[in-house]
Amino acid sequence: MTSLRAVLFDLDGVLTPTAELHMRAWADLFAPYCEALGLAPYTPADYFAHIDGKPRYDGVATFLASRGVELPRGTAADAPGEGTVCALGNRKDEIVNGLFATEGIEPYPGSVRFLDAVTDAGALVAVVSSSRNTPSVLAAAHLADRFDVVVDGNVAAAEHLPGKPAPDTYLRAAERLGVPASESIVVEDALSGVQAGAAGPFGLVIGVDRGVGAQLLRTHGADLVVADLGELDASVLETPAPGRETRA
User: Fold this and answer.
1) Are 9 and 126 in contact (CB under 8 A)?
2) What is the 3-state secondary structure (H, E, C) of 128-147?
3) Lowest mean pLDDT among 31-35, 80-84, 92-96, 243-247
4) Residue 103: what pLDDT?
5) What is the C-alpha separation between 17 and 130, in angstroms, rounded?
6) 77, 105, 186, 244: least buried by Cβ within 10 Å?
7) Which residue of the set 12, 58, 168, 209 is catalytic?
8) Is residue 10 among the annotated active site residues?
9) Cβ(191)–Cβ(220) under 8 Å?
10) pLDDT at 248 over 90
C-alpha cells in the first residue's frame, strides 16, 4: 500500500492551545447574551456541539439556531455588536484577539515533536484551519516557517470553499502540496474536522482528544484517536487505515 506523504494539521487545539482561548472568548460572548435574552445558559457543551471547528460566522449562526434565535447574516464589515450574525462574530474576534495579546501562544510540545518527526521523515505539511487569525497565531507560536501550505479562513473565503465539515479545505491543501488526498493524513480535534476528513478520500484521519471525547471523534470519522500527538511518531506515515483510500 502506498505510504502517506503529507500531513494536514488543523491549528486550534491540534498545534496550539488557542482552542482554549477560543472557548473562553465564545463563553464571554454568549453567556451574557443568553442571560440578557432569557435563553438557556451557554455551556462548554455548546462549543463542542455547535461551534468547534466551523468558520466563525457559521458557528454563530448554528449556536443561535440551537436557541431558536434568527438574526440577519450581515456582512464581514459589520461593527462588533449583536445586531447581526457577523456583528456577533466580529465581537468574538475582538475578544479572542485581546486574549492572544495578553496571554501569548505556545504550541503543544507533543505536537511540535510529531511535526518534527514527520517532516524529518520527508512528509509535506500543511495547516488547514477555519480561522482567519491563522497567520498571526502561527507567527506568535513561532511556527509560520514550518508549513509548506496554509489553507485558512481567508483562503476559503477568497476561493469560495465551504468550511468544515465539508472536506474542501483539506482537499485544497493536498492539491496545493501536489499530493493525492489518499496519500494524506488529516489531524483534527473537532467533530466537524474529523467529519471533513471522513468525507474525503484521505489515507488516515487522526483525532486529538482535547475534551470532545475519544468515542465521539471515532463516531464522527477518526480512524485513530490520541490524547496528544506526542504519542505518535513518523511510523504513522506507513499505516493508512484499511479501506480509507476508497472512502469518499
Assistant:
1) yes
2) ECCCCCHHHHHHHCCCHHHC
3) 243-247
4) 84
5) 15
6) 77
7) 12
8) yes
9) yes
10) no
User: Taking residues 235-242, what's their average pLDDT?
Assistant: 86
- pLDDT tens, position by position, 66-75: 999 999 999 9
State the Cα–Cα distance between residues 191 and 143, nearest whole angstrom: 24
Residue 190 near residue 49 (C-beta atoms within 8 A) = no
3-state secondary structure of 19: helix
Which of 149, 155, 162, 245 minimizes the C-alpha distance to 205? Answer: 245
116 part of the active site: no
Would you state the cell numbers that stand for residue 154, as one nine-digit string? 481567508
Tell me the one-letter amino acid at 181. A
For residues 81 and 91, what is the distance between their CA atoms, to the nearest angstrom? 6
> What is the tens place of the pLDDT at every residue in 218-234?
999 999 999 999 999 99
* CATH class of residue range 6-17+106-246: alpha beta
Cβ neighbour number for residue 44 with a 10 Å cutoff? 11
Express as a percent the part of the chain with pLDDT over 70: 97
Residue 45, helix vs strand vs coil: helix
With beta carbons less than 8 A apart as the criterion, state whether 141 and 11 touch: no
How many C-beta atoms surround the C-beta of residue 159 within 10 A?
11
Please say if the pLDDT value at position 247 is more than 60.
Answer: no
* End-to-end Cα spacing for the chain: 18
Domain boundaries, the chain: 6-17+106-246, 19-103
